[in-house]
Design a protein that fits this description.
Strand 6 (84-88), helix 3 (99-110) and strand 7 form a beta-alpha-beta unit. This protein has one domain: Rossmann fold. It has a 9-stranded mixed β-sheet. Strands 2-3 form a two-stranded antiparallel ribbon. It has 323 residues and is of the alpha/beta class. 30% of the residues lie in helices and 18% in strands. It has helices at 24-28, 73-76, 99-110, 145-160, 177-188, 212-216, 225-233, 236-242, 244-249, 272-283, 299-302, 313-318; strands at residues 3-5, 14-17, 20-23, 48-54, 63-69, 84-88, 118-122, 170-175, 195-199, 253-259, 288-292.
Length: 323
């Protein structure tokens, strides 16, 4: 497997793409095809690598891509192992979406506010909910996304990087579709992940997803009751209830962010994110909910100087058991 390193500087780099001269940021913001397990844009932010890894779960010879941020200490301390945050992008997004988080974490590490850590920007399908598609339905086009992440991606990262390969050194953060998946995967696999941070997580119920194709590509024909039944079996609440005791006893750290201008804050009289928080409270699962006044469905906006400063110390606390 080849690892490509593109240590580029956003302020000065330009890339010629499709006959046009674009800044690196323009390139990093480009969309990917709906069936892209491999991000076609190989440019990365400073401090990151573009990586290909085998997705054997999908079949022999298949690959996926990742964006991997390595702190400066990774190169200067060859005996040290580092905790890992897996970043799950939002719907229609890609692995490069994690650059807003990389920027903030990198500054916090350089300032000595948190310990050095690795960030893995996951390239899942742009719309796929980070779970295994119900492939018996002909309208489903995604595949075994969850199995790829759990059985191919994480083992690859642990075997190719100096990670702390335990739940104490492994966490999830995600935005929108990825934010909902962050909670679902953390609650489903409390033996794998020790912390979960959901940014404007799509913790929606079946009738609250407005896009028919966003449901059908993973769950199946929206008019088929079996599609809704599969969706209902995979929401974060199911796994939170199933594994409540282990989630609590393990000391998993959980937080959620939502802006007041986000439809996931309130839509048609339903406080979607608050409902999730209330459910966790009823189960006795400790967590924090941050409601950001005036912020919309955009992490760059949510954590800018006019709204809320991104709290990196959450990760210092989450990973203090791994050092």
């Amino acid at each position: 497997m080849k690892t490509f390193r593109f240590l580029l500087t956003v302020a000065v780099a330009t890339i010629a793409l499709a006959g046009q001269s674009q800044t690196l940021e323009d390139t990093l913001a480009m969309r990917t095809p709906k069936d892209a397990w491999i991000d076609p844009i190989t440019a990365v932010p400073s401090g990151c690598e573009y990586v290909l890894y085998p997705t054997n779960t999908r079949g022999e010879g298949t690959e996926g891509s990742l964006l991997v941020y390595l702190p400066p200490q990774y190169y200067t301390d060859s005996d040290r192992r580092f905790p890992v945050i897996y970043y799950l992008h939002g719907g229609t997004g890609n692995q490069r979406e994690c650059r807003w988080m990389v920027e903030r974490i990198d500054k916090a590490i350089l300032a000595g506010k948190i310990q050095p850590l690795i960030i893995v920007g996951v390239q899942a399908l742009p719309v796929g909910w980070y779970l295994n598609g119900r492939m018996e339905d002909p309208k489903v086009s995604t595949g075994p996304i969850e199995d790829v992440l759990m059985h191919d991606m994480i083992p690859y990262v642990d075997s190719h990087y100096r990670t702390i390969a335990s739940r104490e050194g492994r966490a999830l953060e995600g935005f929108s579709m990825g934010g909902g998946a962050t909670l679902r995967l953390a609650f489903k696999y409390p033996e794998v992940f020790g912390a979960a941070s959901s940014v404007a997580g799509a913790v929606v119920h079946w009738t609250e997803e407005p896009l028919r194709h966003a449901l059908e590509c993973t769950f199946g024909d929206v008019d088929d009751p079996a599609s809704k039944a599969y969706f209902d079996s995979q929401i974060p609440e199911v796994y939170a209830e199933r594994n409540t005791e282990q989630i609590i006893s393990s000391g998993m750290m959980v937080r959620m962010f939502i802006g007041t201008e986000d439809r996931l804050y309130q839509e048609n009289g339903v406080n979607i994110t608050q409902r999730m928080s209330d459910y966790l409270t009823a189960l006795g699962i400790p967590h924090d909910l941050y409601i950001i006044p005036g912020a919309n469905h955009n992490p760059w906006e949510m954590f800018d100087s006019n709204h809320l400063s991104y709290d990196c110390t959450f990760w210092a606390k989450a990973f203090n058991r791994s050092n």
